[in-house]
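Lab meeting prep.
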Amino acid sequence: MASNLPYYEQKDRENTLRLRSMIKELPPFCADFFRGIEPQTSSRTRIAYAYDLKVFFDFLQKENPVFGKMELRDILLSHLEMITVSDLEEYMEYLKYRFNDKNQEVVNKERGIMRKLASLRSFYNYFYRTEKIKTNPAVLVQLPKLHQKEIIRLDIDEVARLLDEVESGDSLTDKQRAFHQKTQVRDLALLTLLLGTGIRVSECVGLDINDVDFRNSGIRIHRKGGKEVTVYFGDEVEEALLDYMEERKHLIPAEGHENALFLSLQMKRISVRSVENLVKKYARIVTPLKKITPHKLRSTYGTSLYQETGDIYLVADVLGHSDINTTKKHYAAQDEARRRSARDKVRLREE
C-alpha cells in the first residue's frame, strides 16, 4: 500500500500522479519535455513547470489571435517557433495582473514573473537543445530586475520568548489554550528542532521515529532530490525531543501513520500547512510586525550559525544549499556587519 511507503516516497508518488493529470491539460508535445527533464528535476519542480506552462498557454489563447482560435490539444511544437520576443514581453506584462480559471485576480511581483519566465526558458531550451525547434526567443527576453529582499529572521531574544511562549501558552486565547494543553510538548519539540537544526519544514514533517538517533545526536532527513543526510542537534533539541518521544509512546497513530514522528490531533502525520499555522500562531504573539514562517526559522538558524562560525561553506552544507551563492545572498548583510567590525581591529600607531 502507498501509505506504507516512506513519507518522501509517498509525496513523490502523489506528485507524479498529479503531474500526469496536469500534462493532459497541455499540448501533447509537452509530455516530451517532462520526460526529458525527469532525471534532473524533482516531481515538485516538474509540477511547478506544468502550472507555469498552463498559464503561458492560457495567455496565448486569450491574448494571441492565432492561438485564440485553436484548442490546446491542437497546438503543435512548430507553433512555438511563431512566438516572438515581443510576444513574450507582452506575456510578462500579462503576468503582472491576470485572472485565473475561477475569475480570481492573480498578482505577480518580480519574483513570480521571474519564476514563470525561468520555466518558459527551460521549456524552450529543452526543445532547442534537442534540435526540435530552430529558434529560441525565450533566451532573448530581458528578465525583470530583482530588488533584494530584506532577510526576515528572529533576533536572539525573540527566539527565547517564542520558546517560552510555547512552553507557557500564557498569551494564547482560551480556545487556543485548550489545544495547547494537548500539543505543548509536541510543539516545543518541533519548533526547537526547526530553530536548532535549520531543516526545511518538509524535511521536518517527513521524519519517522527511527530517523532520530540519540546516541549520535542526529536525525536522518531526505533533502531535495532525495539525497539522504544526517543533521546533528545539540542538547536543547535533544531534551525537547526526548520529552516528546516519551509522550509519543502513548499515542495511537491512525493506520498508515504508525512510523511518523510528529502527529496531528487526528493522530496522522502532521502536515506542512499545520506547522506553518502553529509557527504563525506563536510568532504573532512574540513579534507581530514580522511575518514569521518555518523558512524564517531556518534563516534564523543560518544567521546564528554564521555569526558563531564565520564559515559560509559550513552554513551552506548544514542548510543543504546546492549553490554557495544562495547562502552568500542570504547572509551578505552579516558579512557587511563583520567587515564593519574590522575597522577598529588594527591599530596603526600606539596611543
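Slide two material, second protein:
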Amino acid sequence: MDDRKSLIAIGLIVVATILTIVVGLMPGARTLSAEAVLHALIEPDGKIESILVWTLRLPRSLSAAVAGAGLAVSGYLLQSLTRNPLADPGITGVTAGAIAPIVACFVLLPSVPGFWYPFVGLVGGLGAASVTFWVSRGGNGRPLHLALSGISVSLFLGAITIYVLLLAGPQSTALLFWISGGFAGRTWTHLAQMLPWMIIGVGGALAFHRIISMFALSDHAAAGMGVQLTFWKPVLLLLGIAPVAGVAPVAGPVAFVGLAAPHIARLLQPRGTRAELALTAALGALIVTAADLIARTVAIPKELPVGILTALLGGPIFIYLIQRGRPGLGRGSL
C-alpha cells in the first residue's frame, strides 16, 4: 500500500470512528433522534438533550476512542520492541501490573489522590513487564514463552488484586465492574486525565518511528545503524506502557486491543512504520468506540463491560497467532 492509499485507509477509519461516535449519541435509557443530536451538537441549549449529549454520551465516546488509540499503539510498540507477535499490554502482564497497585492504593491507601494513579500504574506496569521479559528469556524469548510468562505474571497479580478486593467490603462491587473494563459515567475530566498519557505514547511513537523500524529488524542491525540499545529500549518501553497507565485508572483493563489492532493494520500493508502506527491508532480507536457502543446498547438499560467485547475480538486472534504464527516476526530479544 503506497502513501496515498495509506492516507485514504486512515481517513476512512477515522471517518468511521466519528460516525460511530455520532451514532452512539442517540441510543440509551432515553433515545434521541438524529435531528435532536445534531441540534444539541450545533446549538447546545441546556435542555435534557444537550445534557445527555455533552455531559454523558460525548465525553464517554471520546474517552473510548482516545483509550483505544493509545492501547493499540502500546501493543504495537511492545510487539516491535520484542519482535514478538504475541506481545500485548494484557498478555505481557503490563495491564495487571498497572491494575494491582491502583486497586491496592484505592482500598488500602484511600488518602492517595487519584492524580497519582497513572504514575502508580506506570511503575507497576514497568515492574510487571520487566519480570515477564526476564522470565521469558529462559525460553530464549520465543513468542509462546513470552505469552506464558506474561500470563503467569498476570495470574499472580490478578490473585493479589482479588485478595485486595475482598478487603474492600461494599466498594468491591464498583471495583469489580471497573476491573472488567468500561467507560460508564466517564466525563470530560476523565478524558482530560487520560489525554496527556495518550499523547506521550502515541506522539512519542510517531516521533521515533525511525528508531522503531530499526528495532523491528534485530538488535544487531539496530546497533549497527547507530541506535543506542541501552537508551532506546527503556524509552520505547516507557512509551508503550504510558497509555496503559493513563487508561487503567479511568477505564480499567480493556483487553486485547493492543494485540488485535496492530495485526489488523499489518494485514492492510501500509507503507512505512509511521503509516502503520497511524493506522494502528485509528483501528484501536474504532474498535473500542464500537465495542463501547455495543456494550451500552445491547441490553438497555443495563450495559456490558467493554473488556468482555474486546476480549471476544482479541481472543480468537490470539489463538490464531499461536496456532499459525505470523511470518516476518521473529524472536523477542528484550
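Talking points for slide two:
Residues 69 and 281 are 4 Å apart (CA to CA).
Residues 3-324 form a domain with the ABC transporter involved in vitamin B12 uptake, BtuC fold (CATH 1.10.3470.10).
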